[in-house]
Amino acid sequence: MSTGTKTTAVDPWKLWTAAEVAAALSVARSTVYAWAEIGLLPCVRIGGTLRFDPSAVRAEIEGKQHGGPMGGSVVTLRRRTADGE
Fold first, then answer.
1. Which letter does DSSP use for residue 36 in this model?
2. Residue from 60, 51, 63 nearest 21 by CA
């Protein structure tokens, strides 16, 4: 007996575009590019384009929260230094 719900397989290799990251974070696409270029968001360069691993973006944002996973707090993104701090 089917419940009529569809299950969608998640492709672990699917990378987000800057537009998809911008939509997920509710920021401008130019902001995503700026954050990526200065090291605030993890990304990969494929040819001339930037792509983003959704789980890495989520982990980066969740790692910046100061109030637990349910949030409500301000997330401050800071540039990484050479020693990774």
1. H
2. 51
Element containing residue 18 per DSSP (H, E):
helix 18-25
Count of structural domains within the chain: 1
Name the pTM for this structure: 0.65
Chain segment 48-72, per-residue pLDDT in tens: 899 999 999 999 888 876 544 444 4
> What is the domain range of residue 45?
18-64
Do residues 3 and 14 lie in contact, with contact meaning Cβ atoms separated by under 8 Å?
A: no
Q: What is the DSSP letter of 68?
A: -
Q: Within a domain: residue 76?
A: no
Considering the domain boundaries, does residue 38 fall inside one? yes
